[in-house]
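Human: If only I could read C-alpha cells as easily as an amino acid sequence. Take your time, and here it is.
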Amino acid sequence: MTERQVLPGDEIAVEEEYVASDGTYVRDGKIYASQIGTLILDDEESIAKVVPANPPNVLKEKDIVYLTIDDTRKTMATATAIATEGTCREIGSSTVATIHVSKISPEYTDNVADEFRKGDLVRGRVISVKPSLQITTKEPHLGVIRAQCGICKTELVKKGKDLHCPKCRRSQPRKLADDYGNVKI
C-alpha cells in the first residue's frame, strides 16, 4: 500500500492498474486527484483513493447522533440531528431525521408522544441515510438524555422509569437513555 500527499489535478495512477475511488476522477484512462489529501494506492484491492486531512462529517449507518425532537405524531417523530458522537465537526449531510414508533423501544409503543416530546434532546443510532435519515433508540444507551417540563420549562429529573418536574410536581413518561441527565456533548 502506497501513501503520499497529492493536490487536485495530480496524476496518481492509470485505469489499467487501479479503480478510481473516493477523491479521484478519470480522464483518458488516467486517474487524477480531485482534492488535497493523502493518496492511498491499495494493491490488494486495486483501488486508488484520496483521503482528505479533515474530511466532512457525513452521517452513515451505525453513527451515534444527538437530535432535538421537532414534532411528534402517533406513529413517528421528526427530529434534527445536531451532532455526531466522537466528532466536533458540524454535520455535513442532511440533518432532518425520522424515528418510527417501531424503532423507539424494544417494548411495544402505541403512541410516540408517550416516549418523546417536542424539544427533547435524544441520543440515537442511524439505521438508514437513503432515501432519508432514519434513527433508532431501541438500545438501553439510546433515548432521551435531557428534557424540560412542557408547562414551566424546568429541566426534568429522573424518578423511577419516568421524569418528574421538581417545580410543577408532574410526572411524564419517556424512552430514557440509561445515563439520562449525566451527558456532556
In short: The longest strand covers residues 64-72.
